[in-house]
From TrEMBL:
Cofactor dependency: Fe(2+)
Annotated organism of origin: Aureobasidium subglaciale (strain EXF-2481)
Cellular component per GO, a single term: cytoplasm
Record PANTHER family: ALPHA-KETOGLUTARATE-DEPENDENT SULFONATE DIOXYGENASE
Name by which UniProt lists this protein: TauD/TfdA-like domain-containing protein
Family affiliation: Belongs to the TfdA dioxygenase family.
Lineage of the organism: Eukaryota, Fungi, Dikarya, Ascomycota, Pezizomycotina
Keywords of the record: Dioxygenase, Iron, Metal-binding, Oxidoreductase
Domain TauD/TfdA-like residue range list: 101-371
InterPro entries in UniProt: AtsK-like, TauD-like_sf, TauD/TfdA-like
GO molecular function: 2-oxoglutarate-dependent dioxygenase activity; metal ion binding
The keyword Glycosyltransferase belongs to this UniProt entry's keyword annotation: no
Signal sequence annotation: none
Amino acid sequence: MAPALIDVVHNADAEQVYAKNQSQEGYKEAFAQGPKTTNYESELKGVGKHPPAKYPLYLPVWDNEKDIGGKYPPNQPFEAYEHGKDADPSFKNLFKGASSVEDITANIGAEVKGVQLSKLDKAGKDELALYVAQKKVVAFRDQDFADLPIQDAIDFAEYFGPSHIHPASGAPKGYPKVHLVHRSAADTTAKDYFEERTNSITWHSDVTYEQQPPGTTFLYILDGPSAGGDTCFVNQAEAYRRLSPEFQKRLHGLKAVHSAHEQAQNALARGSIVRRDPVANTHPVVRTHPATGEKALFVNQQFVRRIAGFKKEESDYLLKFLYDHIAYSQDIQARVKWAPGTVIVWDNRVTAHTAILDWQDGQRRHLARLTPQAEPPYETPFGDSSN
Ligand SMILES: [Fe+2]
């Protein structure tokens, strides 16, 4: 029989794939979390071979904003102060008492033992800001952060800038300024995730859609798998320096549009919340660090949607090159391993990072991030500094 002239077939599966693609648009979420994916029962009591959470006060909730009517107002501009500029570059206050200070690789990263971050005085904190800006990421071992009263940990981080309150993530009850990364014990979302994607790599710098994205940033572990769940960092200043002077010059003056909208859509799609209306902001593609004067690439696939003023194909072409350059350059990356008591400190202005979702046996992973905001990204002209 001849086919009908107009044969309309509604393919629900295809529509679903289309809808999913719409909400991703370059954004990729390997660690989907929300009130529906947090199993409080198994977290508080343990489940099967998994013990209860070691830090139940840090279990995520999504209703801290109930008291203010459910939504935060837009973030307001503030005057940022860069403490790294006041640092003694000999780092004598930071490292007094250190038992070991070692580079992780030649191009990025250090590991420090014997220094208790929470005990640093003002001079030590200033040096911390500069040291982290220079090394890009530093793992401090055997810290007491996780055992401090939560407010004390927040107060420590706020020396470096006001806390960013994440628009979608879970936070400890009563402490919205803490961003939690949490997967419950016996969680199966890793298996679900790999049904859909080939890998969990999501290079990004945190919340770059904000007008004043974070600088010196702290992440500490509460509970983690026995192996896996490392975090990878890349030196975005070295990524800039690897480019030819002619190519560097072309990047100067360009601005990229960073968007929170896809993250918000994804949060709503999985039944989570959006506690502040999503924003988009434009930042220079090359930014300068206020303490070191280094220039760094400042684009990431998670949040950048377009080079401002470029047509879509032009923008996609340039951004793909930059993303590939960053992702393939393992010679400017470090893979940092977690251990109980570890606090990783990095400078979000000159690095990108990715979590690695490589354990699928249902072990709990639970970390807390303190995210001081910094200055609005700015650039200085090509060739005017140490670069
Ligand atoms: Fe991150």
